[in-house]
């Protein structure tokens, strides 16, 4: 095992654990912070694999923009920062979600195992020019749609400020 393998394994483990913590925590701000850690360590995984451009995009777009947007929306909508009885899910609901997620994970594993089996798949790293041609050519519209969705979420958060239960805005 090389140093790169050990570093990739450590970063991958931290990313997986922080992703699980992000979806299992009951506090919204903590979930956003766990998500930040998950995406940052995922960017480190990209660096270890030699994809510096993808790592930079991961940091700028996801950590720098999406997580900030989530925290901004939480602050604007006055969502409960701590534990809230309104958002608590009973144990039966959690067990159903656990069974469904385990079944989905098993289905994905079975699909990939049957699709690839034990054969090794060759990866062509490509170049930054090919990546740029794909990003700004074929995948330009999905990125534009994503930016519109994020803008709609921000506008929705701003619109929700004035529609509080107490009848007005301060």
From TrEMBL:
Its main location: membrane. Keywords: Cell membrane, Membrane, NAD, Quinone, Transmembrane, Transmembrane helix. It is a multi-pass membrane protein. InterPro entries: NADH_UbQ/plastoQ_OxRdtase_su6 (IPR001457), Nuo/plastoQ_OxRdtase_6_NuoJ (IPR042106). It catalyses: a quinone + NADH + 5 H(+)(in) = a quinol + NAD(+) + 4 H(+)(out). The chain crosses the membrane at residues 6-24, 31-49, 55-76, 96-119, 139-161. Its EC number is 7.1.1.-. The keyword Transmembrane helix applies. It is found in: Cell membrane. It is an enzyme of class 7 (translocase). Belongs to the complex I subunit 6 family. NDH-1 shuttles electrons from NADH, via FMN and iron-sulfur (Fe-S) centers, to quinones in the respiratory chain. Couples the redox reaction to proton translocation (for every two electrons transferred, four hydrogen ions are translocated across the cytoplasmic membrane), and thus conserves the redox energy in a proton gradient. This is NADH-quinone oxidoreductase subunit J. It comes from Dermacoccus barathri. The lineage of its organism: Bacteria, Bacillati, Actinomycetota, Actinomycetes, Micrococcales.
